[in-house]
Every structure is written in C-alpha cells, then in structure tokens.
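Hypothesis: this fold can be encoded by more than one sequence.
Test: take the structure tokens below, design a sequence, compare later.
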C-alpha cells in the first residue's frame, strides 16, 4: 500500500510536524529521527513503546511503522501484573523509550533502545501490505485480562482518510490536544492523523482548558478531547469572555471516547457559537461514525457512518432492523476496512466477536434515526436495562439527570428487582453536597423529560464517579454499597 505518511518524503521541508511543550520537530527532522528509529527496529516484528506524552513516543511509533513493524503502546500507569500480561502476550523484541525514562519490571527486562529526537537516518521505502499489523492496542480488560487488538495498516489509513472527508481535515490544520498516547484517540487520531495529512499536532502534555485556549488563540484550528475535558471547558467559559473567544475561533471541536452530555454541548455553544462534533469508535474498529463538519448540529448523536463503513442495528437474536425510527434500541454491528484483524493469541475470542458474514459485534447499544444518525445509549453489558418489559438505555437517563441544576455528575445502572426485572439506579455526585436533590425530585425531573418508566427508582450519592484514564465511567466499580 502507499505510505502512511507521504509528507515525510514529499519534500518535508521546514513545516512543524510535532510540538510538545517547548520542543518541536519539523517534517524534515521528524523524517530523519523516525528514519533512525526504523533502522534500529527493522525486522523486529512487534516493538513495545513506553507511551509517555512526549516527542519521543511520537517518533518511536512513526519510526516503528516506517520499519514495517507493529507498535505495542504501553500505558505508563499500568500496574505490574497488567504489564507482565501484555508483554507475555505480545512478546515484543524490544522496548523504545525516551532517554532517562525509568522502566518498571517487567519492562526493564526487555532489550531497550532510547529514542533520540535529534538522530538522523534515511526513511526506508515502504513495501508493507495493507493487511500487515501497524499496532497492537490492548483493551481495558473490564471482563478479564486485556486483549491485544491487532490493527492493520489499512485500518489506520482508511480511518484517517475517512475522517479527513468528514471533517474537511487538511494539511493546513493545527491540532491541539492533551490526550494520552497509548489509546487510539490520542495516538492514531491525535498524532498519526495530523502527520498523514501533513499538518501539525501540538500536545499539551497535560490537558488544561486555558492551555488549549492559548493554542487556539495562536493558530491552532482543531481540538480533540474527551467529555471530562469538555465539561471543564463548559464550566470555565461563561465567566471568561477571553477564553470563550479563543474557543470560538476553532474550526473544529471534536469529542470522543464517551458520550458528551447534551447540557455541556449547549453551554459551549451558548458561550462560543461553536458546536462540538462527536464521533464513535472503538479500539477494534477505529472510527465508525461522525457528525460531519458540513452537516447540521446534532447534539447527542455521533453522526452517520463514515465513508466505507457499514453499520446496522440488530435485535437480541441477531436479526437486523428492517427500518430505523429513532426509538428502538439495538446492538451496533459494523463491517469495513476500518476493522482490526484479530485478538492476538485469542482465536476463540476473535471468532466470537464476528458474525459468520464478517460483521463485528460492538456490544454498544444505540438507536438510529430515519436519516441514518446514530445515538449511543450505552454498553450492552452495563448500560442496557430491562425494566417492566422495556429496553432502556442508561445514556439518555444520564443526560436527563445532568440537566438538573443539583447534579454535577451522574451514572445510571440497573439492579435486580422482583417485580420489574431490573430497577433503575441513579448514582449522583451533587452540585452541593450539603443540599443534594432527593429521589422524588430527580425521578420527576427524568419522567418529565423522557417517560415515566425511565425514572430512577433508587438514588445513591457519591463524592465522585470512578473513571478510567480516558474519562469513561467504570460502572463495574459501582456496587450497591458504594454510595451513601
């Protein structure tokens, strides 16, 4: 297939490719540094990358891909047991790290190559096929040890080109974000995306609404973030006209990795006149859908399937929906060149993830409008609640709860009920812990916005919701004894 990064060889010149804090690399210097890495890892098969939010991580991954090897990003915050499992499962030949990084056991037992951002080496000719692995990214492991999703080079290229079509993304764009680099969002979209377009990425190191605002005031055109980041932005904008003006100047604000509550959409739009674009993807599928940059605002939806991606909803027995009405809840299945090829060393898990005709079972539940727009309502395992004969998605109840002024954060789960099958439980972080809203008040609030059968029957108050590194609520950590 053609090169993943044509800008590295097509007269790379002095355009800035990467900037992390006060350190940057032009395309010419990135080509040289990544070429040097490629020379060190050629023939290595799989290469572990100690994925700190640094210039060296970006150089390491690009160099590994140039060499035709597969990068295995390692989360520096992972515990020893998880790291040992990932390294045993993926069996990398070596680990790439920034000079001075202290690597924990068992990573320290691997042959190590320090990444020198100032090194020089030739960019090798790309002879790899699209089916060859580019990345092995490990899932969160919520239902067992993390599984390594093998992502082929064609999936990376297809997703980034499809997003370029949906977002009108070009080499003139400057992307700012503060996402971690061991996930698809921060690494594939947030680093490889700009490099494939020939644009620039400015990484904040650590996300801060004002730091992102300064970059948007200084030429950045796009911001990628997760809902917890946009919630912080929504909180700060109303009282800071200068910050609001910075965000108003963005060409595109993109949120992903979890649903962005509608009330945060509305607050950001009210303060800036800009809408936040949502998209939907997974480790195993990269990106599936997005609201288009040239489309109408659709808060609460993740848009339509990207070019080349097929998407359908199915009933519990696997029967595809004949038509979409924006009400019926079904599981999302997808098919297309954006899909992973396998779970490494897990043939049974791989087979179980696909239908006989090649559709990937996402485990995500959604409704779909007649015009094709998709609205995610949650995960099949944790967010589909069967109560009183109804199938209810937790996401829409969470959005309704967040519209109540007494609610700062909210999560919804189901628990067994002898009469209803499951009863709806609201886990709430109150805006004022000294004066939290009561169950009757919140139940009436939800019933007035949705339907009576969607009102919570139990209220549990928390100081904070458990979240992972990407800001997703970890619902399996919400147990009956966790709240007040």
């Amino acid at each position: 297939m053609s090169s993943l990064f044509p800008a590295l060889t097509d007269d790379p010149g002095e355009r800035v490719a990467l900037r992390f804090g006060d350190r940057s690399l032009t395309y010419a210097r990135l080509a040289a540094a990544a070429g040097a890495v490629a020379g060190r890892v050629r023939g290595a098969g799989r290469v572990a990358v100690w994925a700190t939010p640094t210039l060296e991580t970006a150089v390491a991954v690009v160099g590994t891909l140039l060499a035709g090897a597969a990068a295995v990003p390692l989360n520096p915050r992972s515990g020893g047991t998880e790291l040992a499992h990932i390294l045993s499962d993926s069996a990398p030949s070596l680990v790439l790290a920034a000079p001075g990084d202290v690597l924990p056991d068992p990573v320290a037992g691997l042959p190590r190559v320090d990444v020198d951002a100032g090194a020089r080496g030739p960019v090798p000719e790309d002879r790899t096929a699209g089916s060859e692995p580019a990345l092995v990214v490990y899932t969160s492991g919520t239902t067992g040890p993390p599984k390594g999703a093998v992502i082929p080079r064609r999936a990376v290229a297809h997703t980034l080109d499809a997003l370029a079509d949906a977002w009108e993304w070009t080499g003139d764009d400057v992307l700012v974000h503060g996402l971690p680099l061991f996930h698809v969002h921060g690494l594939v979209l947030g680093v490889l995306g700009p490099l494939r377009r020939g644009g620039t990425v400015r990484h904040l190191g650590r996300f801060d609404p004002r730091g992102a605002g300064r970059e948007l005031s200084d030429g950045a055109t796009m911001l990628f973030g997760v809902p917890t980041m946009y919630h912080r932005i929504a909180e700060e904008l109303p009282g800071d006209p200068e910050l609001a003006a910075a965000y108003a100047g963005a060409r595109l604000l993109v949120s992903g990795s979890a649903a962005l509550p509608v009330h945060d959409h509305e607050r950001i739009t009210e303060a800036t006149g800009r809408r936040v674009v949502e998209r939907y993807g997974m480790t195993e599928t990269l990106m599936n859908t997005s609201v288009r940059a040239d489309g109408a605002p659709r808060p609460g939806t993740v848009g339509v399937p990207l070019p080349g991606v097929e998407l359908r909803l199915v009933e519990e027995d696997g029967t595809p929906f004949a038509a979409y009405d924006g009400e019926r809840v079904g599981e999302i299945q997808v098919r297309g060149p954006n899909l992973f090829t396998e779970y490494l060393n897990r043939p049974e898990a791989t087979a179980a993830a696909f239908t006989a005709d090649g559709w990937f079972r996402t485990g995500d539940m959604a409704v779909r409008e007649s015009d094709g727009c998709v609205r995610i309502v949650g995960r099949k395992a944790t967010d589909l609640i069967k109560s009183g004969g109804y199938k209810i998605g937790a996401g829409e109840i969470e959005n309704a709860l967040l519209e109540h002024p007494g609610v700062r954060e909210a999560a919804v789960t189901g628990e067994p009920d002898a009469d209803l099958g499951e009863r709806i439980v609201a886990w709430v972080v109150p805006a004022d812990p000294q004066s939290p809203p009561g169950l009757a008040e919140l139940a009436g609030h939800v019933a007035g916005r949705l339907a009576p059968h969607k009102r919570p029957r139990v209220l549990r108050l928390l100081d904070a919701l458990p979240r992972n590194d990407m800001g997703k609520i970890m619902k399996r950590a919400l147990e009956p004894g966790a709240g007040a």
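DSSP finds twelve helices and 25 strands in the chain. The chain has a mean pLDDT of 90.
Hypothesis status: open.
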